[in-house]
Amino acid sequence: MPLKKEGHFHFLLIKREVNGMKKTSAQVSGKKKKSIQSYLKQDWQLWVMLLPAVLYIFIFNYVPMYGIQLAFRDFDFTKGITGGAWAGLKYFKQYFTSNMFWPTLKNTFVISFWSIVIGFPAPIILAMIINQIRNQKWKRVVQTTVYIPYFISVVVLVSMINIMFSNGSGVIANLLKSMHLVKESTNIIGSAKTFVQLYVLTGVWQSMGWNSIIYIAALSSVDTQLYDACRIDGANRWQTMIHIDFPAILPTVMILLIMNMGNILNVGFDKVYLMQNSLNLGASQVISTYVYTVGIQKAQFSFGTAVGLFNTVVNFIFLIATNTISKKTTGSGLM
Question: Which residues contact 150 (CB under 8 A, 6 or more apart)?
């Protein structure tokens, strides 16, 4: 009998909760949806704070899109940006059939591919290593040290590369040759074979610490009781990073991976152009430098715009594909 009464009591509680949920849902559905004006009026302070960023993106990202039409016109200085004759896909065909199409596409993809393969996991690993440091003073010292390279300008960085990797007097170049990691006759900064490795590894060194900030912030929200439970179960630090740290930051990792894949053909123009010379041109001529050479230096504005637009379309395709795969596999994505 007590069991029956107890079961009847639980049934009444569940029934009451269900009825309460129904009333709540009815009340919510009965309410009128707020208009955009009401949202603006209610949170106008937040919208004012957001306004400078919106204006910046609109002025520097959307307004210049007006010039995309140059890719489909024969640009004429005397007729202005919209006065040239309509050329259709003429300049796209010119690029696809030119001798520079496959070399520039290949070089851009190779540099971007290795930058993602090596450069993307590096800050994740660094963040998990820093998170395992228990001494807070030493942890702050390590964080500050790895952040410093990010604040070195690209011009200064390339100057450092030219000095340290120069053939004959470069400290790092001589060290690599003495360790037989590089052939004695190799000119590291003047070789197409070593350009990709030099570009990628120096980029990882410069940005690894700064890119780890977002992962360190994500790891700071992990419940410390999970680490205590791991220690009680006998897990070492490596197992803790694999089973607690990495799953905790996986959604953040996927979002940043999608954003990186959306820029897979956007190799940094400034660094590549500064590192570029006649000896390594076979590996350093990427789409962005080719657009500058043809579009600006040779004043072929329509052709340069067409090449740049092709680059953007490819990036957009990679972005959509990566986002779709991420949503199907992990359930997280940008859209």
Answer: 206, 207, 209, 210
4 vs 18: CA distance, rounded Å? 21
User: How far lies 255's CA from each of 209, 293, 323, 332, in Å?
Assistant: 19, 34, 8, 7
Which one-letter amino acid corresponds to residue 119?
A: G
Chain segment 261-278, per-residue pLDDT in tens: 767 777 778 899 999 988
Q: Cα(268)–Cα(284) distance, rounded to whole angstroms? A: 11
85 bridge partner residues: 74
**Distance of alpha carbon 261 from alpha carbon 256, whole angstroms:** 9
Contacts of 238 (CB under 8 A, 6+ apart): none
Question: What is the spatial distance between Cα 258 and Cα 162, in angstroms, rounded to a whole number?
Answer: 33
Question: Is-contact 124 249, C-beta < 8 A?
Answer: yes
Structure tokens at 311: 């680059």
CA-to-CA distance for 321 and 261, rounded, in angstroms?
Answer: 9
H-helix or E-strand containing 284? helix 281-284
In 3D space, the residue among 135, 154, 283, 261 whose CA is nearest the CA of residue 207 turns out to be 154
pTM of the model: 0.76
Per-residue pLDDT, 201: 92
Q: Over the Cα atoms of the chain, what is R_g?
A: 28
